[in-house]
Model the fold of this input.
Amino acid sequence: MAETGNSGKGVTAGKLASTVQKRLSRAQEKVLQKLGKADETRDVVFEEMVANFNKQMGEGIKLQKDLKAYMTAVKTLHEASRRLQDCLADTYDPEWFGKEEMDAMVEDTDTLWLDFHQNITDNSMLSVDSYLAQFADIKARIAKRDRKMVDFDSARHHFASLQKGKKKDEAKIAKAEEELGRSQKIFEELNVELQDQLPVLWDSRVGVYVNTFQNLANHQEKFHKEMSKLSQNLNDIMTKLEEQRQLNDEANHNEGASSPPTVCESNSSDYKLPPDFLYKVKVIHEYAATDGDELELNVGDIVLVVAFDNPDEQDDGWLMGVQESLWIQKQDISTKGVFPENFTQKL
Done:
């Protein structure tokens, strides 16, 4: 058992030493290449593919980020819409026109928002996520290809230096040639594989953009079309509610309208109206007289409005009248006085 354990440790240590040696060799090779003391394998076409790959990945990440921001805004707008609709439903009196239609419309609006958000997630967001998922693996293989290219260059230079040496060690040359062949094979396999995949990936972006934005546009069109119908329904309900309010106001006005100006009924008996009678008003705000020719007004009082003896004496916003209760008791026109019109309501 001890031998097996030592063997395992030996393999691990050996692998670690090999990894360290490879990193050191790559670092030395890159230094020599930068100093111009060693030539470097270059592939302009492949470098252009990698530049396109990096550009494509950056654009994809931005698309994913902006689409997520759009979905967050949709969710925020949905929540604001739901609160506003709930507010309307809560304050809508049961006897108002279209109460049931209003409640149904609130539910339909909420469902429409939920469906819109879910459709974007299923048909656009997931498509972009799936598209971007492949970039990490390809990026890692590009980096691996770059490392293997350095290994190939290093093995090539090492083999060439052994061949040029004055004292040739055939065993070392054979081993270096074997290492060169192995490094070249690994590099070329990765290189060919990526040269096949990168152009296909680059072309695939068109289909991804078409699918993402076409689905988004279709769902937006459907959402706004259905939302437009609900908005029109809301507008119709509000129009009918306003018509209902106007009818109620007219009915209340007709019920409170004054009797014909010839005879007026009191709580006790009919009475004749004062000379130059015009119409009745009801006091809606208290008014304390500040002069001897003014009337004292209390809320609920009825005043019989009469014409001024001299129209030139009438000031804007002021009327002449006599308290109905005093007129019924005394029928004395001398009790008349002036009062502010905006403290009363015409009957």
Observations:
- DSSP finds six helices and seven strands in the chain.
- The helical segments are 2-34, 44-91, 99-133, 135-164, 170-255, 324-330.
